[in-house]
Amino acid sequence: MLDPGLNGRVALVTGANQGIGAATARALAAHGVAVLVTYLRLDPREHAGEPYPAEYGQVRAATAEQVAGQIRDDGGTAESVEADLADPAVPALLFDRAETALGWVTPAVREQAVAGSALRHLAQPDEVAEVIVLLASHQARYITGQVVRMS
Questions:
Q1: Which of 85, 98, 121, 139 has the most Cβ atoms closer than 10 angstroms to its Cβ?
Q2: End-to-end alpha-carbon separation of the chain, Å?
Q3: Domain 10-144, what fold?
């Protein structure tokens, strides 16, 4: 893949504790992007239907930190943070946290919007992540005529 020109940028990736979100965080980091790895810790009492085990939130926190740790081990920069985007105040807090810890955020990738699409049925998470990296890059203008906004 050609250099997407993302080195030195900062990305906020939601749902980055697993699947497409984790693959996207790792792929962006491999291209020199500092990543804020976010995850949602579900409260077992708030889940409709079968309750999640109480440890489920701890597992999500641990897997998010594991993704951030893998990025750091590979020489990248990453932090993990819990984020419930259902709370309208959280996005601004996330951007503030990312900017304080890592710098100005460009791009922001909302994993749920990607994972909820047909993409998750057509390709492996790493393959989808490479498409997201391309769409976040300056090379996207050659495909669409403009850079695709990921936020």
A1: 98
A2: 23
A3: Rossmann fold (3.40.50)
pTM of the predicted protein model:
0.73
The tens digit of pLDDT for each residue in 44-53 reads: 555 555 666 6
Low-confidence ranges of the chain (pLDDT < 70): 1-3, 41-54, 56-57, 107-108, 110-124, 128, 131, 134-151
Strands 105-110 and 78-82: unpaired
Dist CA 118 CA 76 (whole Å): 30
Place of tokens 């998470």: 125
- How far apart CA 6 and CA 64 sit, in angstroms, is 22
**Domain ranges in the chain?**
10-144
Check if the beta carbon of residue 114 is closer than 8 Å to that of residue 16. no
- Give me the sheet containing 34-39, strands edge to edge: 78-82, 34-39, 10-14, 105-110
